[in-house]
Structures are given as structure tokens and as C-alpha cells.
Amino acid sequence: ITGGSRGLGLATAKELQARGFRLLLVGLETQLTQNALRILTDRPVVKYISGDITKSGTCIEAIRVCREVFGRLDVLVNNAGMYLGGAIEEFPETSWDQIIGVNLTSHFLMTKAATPLLKESQGQIIFINSVGGKQEQANNSAYCASKFGLQGLADSIRIELKPFKIRVTS
Length: 170
Hints:
Layout: H1 7-18, E1 23-27, H2 34-39, E2 46-50, H3 56-70, E3 75-78, H4 93-121, E4 124-127, H5 141-161, E5 167-169
Parallel strand pairs: 1-2, 3-4, 4-5
Helix pairs in contact: 3-4, 4-5
């Protein structure tokens, strides 16, 4: 689960753990937050990796650890995300790069790294998306672009990976 140390990612981790899933969480924090440690138990196993998933090296390392620790990957939850809004005229290019990186590029990179393991397990990829990926909104061009792009990524990957019996949802 990317972005698994807080918010929706942590709630997803709690639910999956209750269903018996062993978890690999990936987040920016150097270690799981105290809140996350209170919410999650140590059974089934929870492993945490810190890193920037907008960098392919972090994604490759996460999947390497997943294979090493668990031997398989059944579900990839691409949850990491961020929101930045503002009028197009004032919206900084650095903010554009940041939101596209977190909300779109990281999902591509993690999915790319995870695909070999998912082919082995005939697993599932879940993209956590937003209404911003279906409906345009004033003063939210970067956010909506990232989420529309995420929907396009999920839709394309769904077709591409269907022969391998990998389910893709967004």
C-alpha cells in the first residue's frame, strides 16, 4: 500500500490486516507513525519501507523487499496522493510537477515494478482515485489533470494486463 502510513492508506491497511493480509506499507515518513503503530498489530506481518515513490529506485526496492519477505504480491494498492489547488495563472510549475509526480507518476512506477510479481499471482491493482478524475473543477487544473491521467493509466493497464488475469480497478 503506497501512502500506507496515514489517512486512507492506513485505513485500508487496517481493513486488509483484519482480513488476514500481510502488509508492505510504503510512505515518506522514516518510520511508521505512532498513530499507525497503535492502529496496526504485528499479526499478520506488517513491513514498512520509507522512500519517495516518485523515484523508480524506491518502487523497485519496495517490490524487491516484498518478494524477499513475502514471496508474492496479491494486491497492489496505489493510494499515495496529494492535493494542491489554485488558479492556473498563479499555479507554480514546481507545484504542478509535485502533484503530477505523486498522483500519477508514482502509480505508474510502482505498477511497472510490481507487474512481474502480479503476473505470477494473477493479482489485483487498485488505484485510489477521485471524482477529480471524472469531473473538471475550476482552480484545480493540476489535481484534475493528475486524476484524469490516473484514470487513463488504470483503464489502459486493465486492457494490457487482462491476458495475465490481473484485475485493475480505479
